Amino acid sequence: MTRFGIVISKLLERCIIALVLGLGVGVGLGLTQQHALELAHAEQPVASQAQASEAPPSGKADDFNFFSDKPVESKDIVVLPPEKSKWLTVGGPAALLTFMVGILLLTWRLIPFDKHSVDINLRNFPPAAKRGMALAVVLFGIAFAFGASELWYQLQFFGSSADFVASMSLGKLIVMTHAHLFGFTTAFFIVGIPFSMQFNHIKLYQWIFPIGLAACLTDVMSWWGIKYVAHSFEYVSMVCAVLFSVTYMWMLIGLLRTLAFPEVIWASDKDKAARAQKLGKSGN
Questions:
Q1: For residue 116, what is the DSSP state?
Q2: Which of 198, 236, 235, 191 is nearest to 213 (CA)?
Q3: How far is CA 195 from the centre of its chain?
Q4: DSSP 3-state of 121
Q5: Cα–Cα distance for residue pair 189/3, rounded to 1 Å
Q6: CA distances (Å), origin 45, targets 33, 40, 42, 48, 51
Q7: SS3 state at 191
Q8: How many Cβ atoms are within 10 Å of 129's Cβ, its own excluded?
Q9: Which residues have CB under 8 Å from 193's CB, separation 6+?
Q10: Do 270 and 277 touch, CB atoms closer than 8 A?
Q11: Quick one: how many helices (H) and strands (E) in the chain?
């Protein structure tokens, strides 16, 4: 091959290589651009939907006035339930407290005070009985303290006892009602019976056991009012909590003083004269 032919063949070879490279680059750029267009078309409906959701229904965002008295016409506004009437928020708790007073009056009517009841002095009981009753009274007091600490713990999360009760499911409220009715009844029965027998000569003391037990029942009933009627039943729960706490502590202190501290003499003791004379003789 001549020199001219060699130059021509090399030139053709380079042109073919350039053509192949150009076609390759062109196809690559075309595929990339097509993919970008497909992505843009795919994202366009999503962006339009987001803009449509952010835009106001009327399409006039600039016309909205926060300080206007006119009602906002929009289907996206959350409709709050109407405010409950005073018959429920005030009359309901008042009726429940009246129910508690009615229980006490009915009990007083059916079982009146009697001075000639059986005279029992716990100080004359065997040591084992006195020790067992004293320990039972203390343990029930500790149980009440743990119950109060549980309420305090829940208030750290819910802010109020009404919100705590309202957040309970129906199943949990049923379980709480069952457990507390049994617990309250057992605790007051164990403490109230010996206390009432020891101080049977004091008419006022015969009200402490029934008042505490009636307050426990009313307190549990107020939880259902908080859950299904109004949060104002929380005030009934507070009143009942004060009543059964004070009455229980009164009976607890009275029994412990009687069982564990026989040398302490109060004016309410039925045998204060005999015990004072006995202590005076033993002191001499």
A1: T
A2: 191
A3: 33
A4: coil
A5: 126
A6: 20, 9, 7, 5, 10
A7: helix
A8: 13
A9: 209
A10: no
A11: 9, 0
> For 153-202, what is each residue's pLDDT tens digit?
887 878 888 888 888 899 999 999 999 999 999 999 989 999 999 888 88
Rounded to two decimals, the pTM is 0.67
pLDDT of residue 9: 59
Distance CA 259, CA 243 (A): 24
Query: Which residue type occupies 150?
Result: E
Place of tokens 């009359």: 91
Residue 232: φ, ψ to 5°: -70, -15
Could you tell me the two tokens for 273? 């004269």
3-state secondary structure of 64: coil
In which region does residue 59 sit, left (phi positive, over 0), alpha (psi from -120 to 50) or beta (all else)? left
**What are the tokens at 20?**
């192949």
CA distance 154 to 148: 10
What is residue 48's predicted lDDT score, i.e. its pLDDT? 47
Work out the angle between the directed axes of helices 170-198 and 127-158 (0-180°, nearest 10): 150
Q: In angstroms, what CA-CA distances link 264 with 53, 196, 199, 201, 202?
A: 79, 19, 15, 19, 18
Q: Give the chain's residues under pLDDT 70.
A: 1-79, 115-116, 281-284
Residue identified by tokens 């037990």 is 213
Q: Is 103 exposed, middle or buried (0-12, 13-18, 19+ CB in 10 A)?
A: middle
Give me 45's structure tokens: 């409906």
Residue with tokens 């004293």: 134
